[in-house]
Amino acid sequence: MDYVSIRVSTLRGDQKIDFNAYVKINEKMILYLRRGDSFEGERLKRLKEKKLRKMFIVTDEESLYRDYLQKNIETAYHDSNKDMQTRAEIIQGAQQSNTEEVFENPESEKSYAECKDAAGKYVDFIINNTDAFKKVMGMENTDKNIAHHGVTVATLSIALANKLGITDAKRTQLLTLGSLLHDFGHHASSLNLVQPLAKMSAEDKAIWARHPSEGAQKVQDKKHFDQTVINIINQHEETINGGGPLGLREKDIDPLSVIVSSANAMDRLITFENIPKSEAAKKLMIEHVGNHPLNHIQMLNDIVKSL
User: Fold this and answer.
1) Which of 61, 85, 92, 121 is most deeply buried (CB count within 10 A of its CB)?
2) Which residue range(s) make up the domain with 226?
3) How do residues 10-35 score in pLDDT, each as one tens digit?
4) Based on the number of CB atoms within 10 Å of its own CB, is 223 exposed (0-12), middle (13-18) or buried (19 or more)?
């Protein structure tokens, strides 16, 4: 029997599946979820705790999986009667899946275009649904996944841009897309991200310092990548005082990269350094003073207070 892999991040919500889902253990396919089950609640939590990125379906059932995805995402975006927690889980998972797809296939124009289109829709979802931001930010990144981190940074960046009065649809779409893809340089890296930057060994710190430029270099020749997105990948660890890997100061940094840098610093503390959301802005204010615009930190503090 032939199988094809599917991303766990696409399996969200209460819609029942029309296919069987398998996990691969010692080269054997073990049935994990049966046709008629759904990926909500405890099932989703267990999958994330196992750090399982992919499952498998029988190749003959791939069209059923595609139908499931289409119906799931359409319901999440357009069915206002569906509870926001379920909608947010589905949409967050779709954004994560799109990001993972570009990470794994950066040469694919189709994958990039789909991720870009979805980024624009995500902006509208976060801005136009009062509880969407809270629900997405409430999804803990238990497996420290960099694509999940990208979605969180995108969510914070959208909220920060909104407070800054940035409403142009093209700019917010590219801001979101760049946020999703900002850590492309960490894809396939062996670096342990779950440690404070200040406590990294010299070797780890050097690897970390290279990841923005290495990520940008890997996609610079991809003509379908927007230059703004490449800028964000290259500059997202820069600080306004010139203390980042490239030594750029604020006047030389793409303004959208400055926003992503602020949001990224916030979520690095929350996701990879396990700082409570309520304390992250205070830590940024005290320990990272001068690295990010003061109004960004103050706004992020207000944004996170709403959670």
Assistant:
1) 92
2) 84-305
3) 998 889 999 999 999 999 999 999 99
4) exposed
